[in-house]
Design goal:
alpha+beta
Length: 80
Amino acid sequence: QDSRQMISKVYSKRYNAFPEMGSDLSFSVVLLNDKNTGVLLTSIYGWDENRVYLKPIVEGKSTYSLSPEEKEIIGIALTK
């Protein structure tokens, strides 16, 4: 198996998606291979619901819009 396709970069960030809630229960995790291709998983926690998003990442880019937190962890992964 080509080791460049294996997940080699994993970065995460916990954050408060809604400041009025006062907790950091939302998170984003990026899992990339050496070609900066993989997935981004984000969970947004709210009082009444929790939403989970899975966004594909190809060569460091996504066709989906990204939050500042998602952009931050992808940026960190791309520099490693």
